[in-house]
Write a structure and sequence with these properties.
Number of domains: 1
Number of strands: 7
CATH superfamily: Spore Coat Polysaccharide Biosynthesis Protein SpsA, Chain A
Number of helices: 8
CATH architecture: Alpha-Beta Complex
Shape: globular
Strand content: 15-25%
Oligomer: single chain
Strand order of the largest sheet: 3-2-1-4-6-5-7
Largest sheet: 7 strands, mixed
Helix content: 40-55%
Distance between the termini: 49 Å
C-alpha cells in the first residue's frame, strides 16, 4: 500500500553504539526504495556511550537523518520530542534493533491515509522472543482488555503508526517512560478515533534493555491507575448528569 504523503520514522535509542551505524544505513536504504518523502529522527534518551558521536557522523552523511539528545532516560519523553519536531503528519516508530519486519513502515504509512493509528501486533503475526517476555505481554494484554475494554494485542513501543494531529491532542498527558502507547490506545478508543491492527513478524532474541521485574511493576501499576482514573471520570460524569 503506497503512502500519499511523507513519513517520519522515529527511532528511540539508549546506548546503541554497537547497532546504530549498520541499522540506520539499512533503514535508510529501505526507505529510499519506497519512493515517497521521509525523514528518520533518532531520539537519544540518556545515552552515555558513543551513540551520540556515531549518530552525528551519520547525520552529516545522510541528509534525511536528524538527531536530538535528551540527558534523562525516558523513551516516552523522547517520543514526545520526536512528535513535536517531526516534519510529516505520519509518524511510524521502530526499535533500533529493527526486530520488526520493515514492511510494517510502508504498510502503516499507507493505512494512515484512512486511520489515526496503526498497531503492529506480534501476537497476530509471529514472534521469536524469550518465553518470559511473551508470557508477561500476554498477561498485560488480557488485563488491559478487562480493565480498559480495549481489544488490541500489542502495546509495545515499536511497530506503531500515528497521525500527528491525533498525538498532539494527548502530548501533555503522555507518560515519560514506556506506558505512553497504552495511554494513546485507551484515549484514542475513548475519543472514537480510527484504529486498526495488523500482524507483524518480530525476531528479538537479545537481552531486554529493561529490568523486567521493575518494568512489570511499573506497567501493571500504571494500568490500574489508568483504569481508576477512567472509573472516577465515569462516576463524575454520571453524578453531573444526575
Amino acid at each position: 500500500m503506497m503512502c500519499s504523503q511523507g513519513v517520519t520514522v522515529f527511532v528511540p535509542v539508549f546506548n546503541e553504539e554497537a547497532l546504530l551505524a549498520s541499522h540506520i544505513k539499512r533503514l535508510n536504504a529501505y526507505l529510499e526504495g519506497l519512493g515517497f518523502p521521509y525523514e528518520i529522527i533518532i531520539g537519544s534518551n540518556g545515552s552515555t556511550d558513543g551513540t551520540i558521536q556515531i549518530a552525528r557522523g551519520l547525520c552529516r552523511r545522510t541528509p534525511r537523518l536528524r538527531l536530538f539528545h535528551l540527558p534523562r532516560k525516558g523513551v516516552g519523553r523522547a517520543f514526545k520530542e520526536g512528535v513535536r519536531i517531526s516534519r510529516y503528519d505520519r509518524i511510524v516508530t521502530v526499535d533500533m534493533d529493527l526486530s520488526i519486519n520493515l514492511g510494517f513502515v510502508s504498510e502503516a504509512c499507507g493505512l494512515l491515509d484512512h486511520y489515526d493509528m496503526v498497531i503492529g501486533s506480534k501476537i497476530a503475526g509471529s514472534q521469536k522472543r524469550a518465553w518470559i517476555r511473551r508470557l508477561a505481554s500476554i498477561s498485560f494484554i488480557r488485563l488491559a482488555k478487562i480493565l480498559l475494554r480495549i481489544h488490541y494485542h500489542d502495546y509495545s513501543i515499536a511497530a506503531k503508526g500515528y497521525r500527528k494531529d491525533m498525538l498532539q491532542r494527548y502530548l501533555l498527558d503522555m507518560d515519560d517512560l514506556t506506558f505512553y502507547v497504552v495511554q494513546i490506545v485507551c484515549w484514542a478508543s475513548r475519543d472514537g478515533r480510527r484504529l486498526t491492527e495488523i500482524p507483524v513478524q518480530c525476531t528479538d532474541l537479545r537481552e531486554s534493555r529493561f529490568n523486567l521485574i521493575h518494568e512489570g511493576i511499573y506497567k501493571f501499576g500504571n494500568l490500574f491507575r489508568l483504569w481508576l482514573w477512567g472509573s472516577r471520570k465515569r462516576r463524575t460524569s454520571n453524578h453531573a448528569r444526575a
